[in-house]
Structures are given as structure tokens and as C-alpha cells.
Amino acid sequence: MLRLLNIEFSKLRYSRSSKILIITYFTLITFTALMASIEFNIGHIHFRLADQGIFNFPFIWHFNSYIASLLKLFLAIVIVTMISNEYSNRTLKQNLIDGLSKKEFILSKFLTVVVLALISTLFLFIVSLILGLSFSDYTEMSIIFSDLDYMLAYFIKLTGFFSFCLFLGVFVRKSAFSLGFLFIWWLIENIVYGILKWKFFRGSGKADSLAQFFPLESMSNLVKEPFSRLNAFQSAATQLGSEFQKDYAIHWYQLLIVIAWIAIFVYLSYALLKKRDL
């Protein structure tokens, strides 16, 4: 495994575009700290985002994992570019000639996906811990390390999304077309969900029950939007006389669905590469 990882990271080391995208991704995660200084002045209303509790433990684990997951496209570009370069530079064929099997090739790419997701998760954990210790109103150990399952969900979500990008890279071969196909797939999921919700299962929750098995939707469900948990949102809902209820918890079956998609995407990548004449 170390040999395969060494091969892949050697390729990334000499890819200028990949290094720029990776550095940009981690820099933007670090910039979440700037949110603490953002202040809004609307008429006589003045407030800072940090004062709204976004950096309070344990909410910060949810908030930061959601914000960071919005930036995953930077690393997705690295993944699809990594695959497309194998075809355009003919390094894939050369690696196979040099003795690397197709199974080892896919395994090396998947290990890279897992390592990138793991490094991103550890980096996000450190940034969130520092921000929380600096701005949180609650610093008891029991509170600090509660809700850490959002870090696990973030890791699984990234691994799932990058595995999907790995499959698209092998399937389409061109990075631009792979990202275009990713967008088209997102549209397809939303169109199918709309048809299910408004045509077949109007007024019931069956459409949502089925949609949770869609690849991108299942990944999205792991870390739901956190903004409606803020005190300002809850207070506004109360003043309007409405009750807002949403399940923000991370359920084991949601993790299993994404893990199943990871296995499917990796297997399909290998099956496609094994069948394809290079």
C-alpha cells in the first residue's frame, strides 16, 4: 500500500495545478476563522457571526464540517484531473507495462482518495478545535468532544464524493467532461426527486425515503445545513408563530448507504478499467 501511495503522491508532487488546488482548499478552510470578525450593520441592528454561537462547542463540529464540505469541489478537480492525466499522458499504459496490475492501479487511486479525505478531516478537526477554544462559551471537556460524529460523517462524505469522481474519471477520461457529468447527475437526481415527490408520492414522505439512496443525496444527508439551528433562526421562527423541527442527527444507516456507494464506485471503476482495451 505504501508503494502505491508513494507512486500517486509522486505524480501529485509534480502536478502544479493539483498543488494549487490542494493548497487553495486548505487555505479556504483556514479562512473560516475570518467569519469571527464579520460584522453586519443593518439599520440599528449590529451583530457578529461569532456572537451567534457558530463557534460554540459542540455546534462548531456541525457548522465547520458543512462549510468545509462545500469546498470539496477543489479536491474533486484534483481527483478527476489525476485520472484524466493517466490517459492523456499515457502513464496508465506505461504503469501496466512496468508491472502494475489494473487492480493495483484502482487501489492506488482509491488509497489516494482516502488519504486526501483523512488529511482534510484531521485538518478540519484542528482548525475547529482552535476556533472553538478561542471563541466558544463552553469549554468543558464533555461538551468539547460531543458531536464528534460530524467529523466521521465528513470523512465518509468526502470519501464517497471522491470515489464517485474517481469512477467518473475512469468512465469519461476527460476532467472537464467528468465534472460536467457530475453536474448532469446532480440535475438528474433532483429531477427524479421532483417527479417522485409531486407526481407519484404527493403529500407523503416516500419520495424522501427513496431519494436518500441516491448517490449525491445520500452524501448530502450526512451533514445537513446547520444554519436553522442558530438561535437567531429559532427566535425568528418563534416570533412568526411557527415551529421548526429538523433532524440534524447522523444515523448509522446513512453512513452505511454512503459506504455501500463507495464500494460500488470502486468496483465499477475496476470493472470498467478491466474490460476496457488500453
Structure report:
- The chain is built from 13 helices and two strands; from the N terminus they run ααββααααααααααα.
- It has one domain (2-275).
- Strand 1 and strand 2 (45-48) form a beta hairpin.
- Strands 1-2 form a two-stranded antiparallel ribbon.
- The mean pLDDT is 84.
- By secondary structure, the chain is an all-alpha fold.
- The protein has helices spanning 2-13, 16-30, 59-69, 73-88, 91-97, 102-135, 141-144, 149-172, 175-200, 206-211, 215-220, 231-239, 252-275; strands at 39-42, 45-48.
Q: TL;DR?
A:
By secondary structure, the protein is mainly α. It contains 13 helices and two strands.
Which structural traits does this protein have?
single chain; 278 residues; mainly alpha; 2 strands; 70% helix; globular
